[in-house]
Amino acid sequence: MSLLIVGTVAFDKIETPFGKTEKILGGAGTYIGIASSYFTDQMNMISVIGEDFPQKYRDILKDHKINTEGIQEVKGGKTFFWEGKYHTDMNSRDTLTTELNVLADFDPIVPEKYQDCDFLMLGNLAPAVQSKVLDQLRKRPKLVVMDTMDFWMDIAWDALVDTIGKVDVLTINDEEARQMSGEYSLVKAARKILTMGPKYLIIKKGEHGALLFDKESNCFFAPAMPLEDVFDPTGAGDTFAGGFIGYLAKTNDLSFDNMKRAIIYGSALASLTVEKFGTEKISYLTQDELNHRIESFKSLVEVDVKLLD
Amino acid sequence: MSLLIVGTVAFDKIETPFGKTEKILGGAGTYIGIASSYFTDQMNMISVIGEDFPQKYRDILKDHKINTEGIQEVKGGKTFFWEGKYHTDMNSRDTLTTELNVLADFDPIVPEKYQDCDFLMLGNLAPAVQSKVLDQLRKRPKLVVMDTMDFWMDIAWDALVDTIGKVDVLTINDEEARQMSGEYSLVKAARKILTMGPKYLIIKKGEHGALLFDKESNCFFAPAMPLEDVFDPTGAGDTFAGGFIGYLAKTNDLSFDNMKRAIIYGSALASLTVEKFGTEKISYLTQDELNHRIESFKSLVEVDVKLLD
Question: Does the predicted model carry a pTM greater than 0.80?
């Protein structure tokens, strides 16, 4: 099934307790595209870059069979840049620099060839921009997944609510779910958020895993893989989203049971991403490496629970 | 299989965002005993209480078929008392009062009838006291599980290391595992702690679940049940331990696969404990209530992961 991805393609500069990088390839769209490439080769990307975006990074996207026709290049413009520093626990970080650059005036245009997409992944962006893509599609995709963050709750609440109302799956982190719903309990938060439109809610808890809720009060939990070292958490959530929707696009099965599997695949890919800086680890995985990690996840979660009489 | 439990029997006074209690029944031994009573009726308890311990609380222990012969009553003494207040997030609490009372001079004596125990649960106590029980047993139990906390790392490190060296399963929380090992990564922390003696390590992560590690690098994760409300977290860890060892005592199977099941049972019981104050919820559960919660856990964690080709 074909997958349309909307998300940033960016430069990141990252410092963690393990070291620091120069400007490297980053952005939600990048991580989503690379992660989903392990499941489908029909990926169309919508994004925006500046003239400073180097050929070697374009090549990484092309190596993953990502159609880049919908990535606008702004003449004389500079690519979106984020710089951040992680604390020792890797759960918190300081943003040192955010230069929106070409992202500030991003007006997404869906190329004609992208019209017939089956799955749509709206990476974290201004909700009005996310909506603009969805509204340009003449045929609604089978599944629309949306990622967002607290920033948009603070500055664009109405647009956020409007966009959330149009999607099938919303992914946010635990603190954002609490902020969005005003409920501390994630069960109550999920119930409230699911009245806003989405059929499914995924609450990402970082190193503590992810929860999937549906409107029928089904709930599934997938842990994060306990790792020797989390080297760089950047892109973990986007990789998760890309693996999740990529697996669904490949299997074309939107049952709750298959969504559980998609979450395991997303979690497995995210656990690989964080083992190196940026996209370094996730860029060129072998099928064996991915299968090996999936096997590790199976043994981490599989248990044959028996009821006592 | 018979189970010997060593742990405090105490008074707790608890305040949470949902309300507060007077002095109520508490103590690690109490929670462990009540939780394990859903699996075995051969429970022998070693503890100490004061003359102020009321008959109604003795009756609760007796109702659960706990043999209280090994609970010493100190004439004129007062029962151990703890008072605490939980913050809104329920993950942190302030201790307002700790009165050791009769616990200060507790010298555990194993009654002759307790000698032949198959399973031993050493609830959180001074490690020297835990050792004293183990050392009095003429025949080593099939399985010794030990719970401890950071307090003993700070004031009784050598005794703690000595006791840990004698047990089969150690249970501690994530921050304590980090403190004990000097490693931030829980994978690395587990590996180090497992060189100290235990064959298995359970790292409790509160609302984020629990991890089981063995020396062969097997790892299993069980989530905590997402709940509408966590009403009072007091005793959750002890309930978990009691459910864990109770399930093992009933099934008499010490394989890694069965330990996984025991962790699910421990987690299920812990998730019930926190739904009311103190031992209120856990004291009189029906088999149906427990089975219902186990079914909820099954659907929370079960996933049929398939490898892609």
Answer: yes
Nearest Cα residue in chain A from B293:
A307
Cβ separation of A303 and B186 shorter than 8 Å?
no
Residue pLDDT tens, chain A, 309 long: 999 999 999 999 999 998 999 999 999 999 999 999 999 999 999 999 999 999 999 999 999 999 999 999 999 999 999 999 998 777 788 999 999 999 999 999 999 999 999 999 999 999 999 999 999 999 999 999 999 999 999 999 999 999 999 999 999 999 999 999 999 999 999 999 999 999 999 999 999 999 999 999 999 999 999 999 899 999 999 999 999 999 999 999 999 999 999 999 999 999 999 999 999 999 999 999 999 999 999 999 999 998 887
DSSP state of A188: H
Helix axes B28-36, B55-63, angle to 10 degrees: 30
Size of interface A-B (CB pairs under 8 A): 114
Q: Which of residues 121-160 of A touch B (CB under 8 A)?
A: none
What whole-number distance in Å separates Cα of residue B131 and Cα of residue A154? 55
**Is A286 near chain B, with CB under 8 Å?**
no
**Domain residue spans of chain B:** 3-300
How many other CB atoms are there within 10 angstroms of residue B255's CB atom? 9
- 8 A C-beta contact, residue A147 and residue A124: yes
Distance from C-alpha of B13 to C-alpha of B104, rounded to nearest angstrom: 19
Task: Given the cut 0.85, state whether the ipTM is greater than it.
Answer: yes
| Domain A3-300 in CATH 3.40.1190.20 | yes
| Separation between Cα atoms, residue B13 and residue A106, nearest integer Å | 58
Record: contact A298-B304, CB cut-off 8 A: no
Measured between beta carbons, the chain A residues lying within 8 angstroms of B305 are 261, 264, 294, 297-298, 301-302
- Non-local (6+) Cβ contacts of B140 within 8 A are none
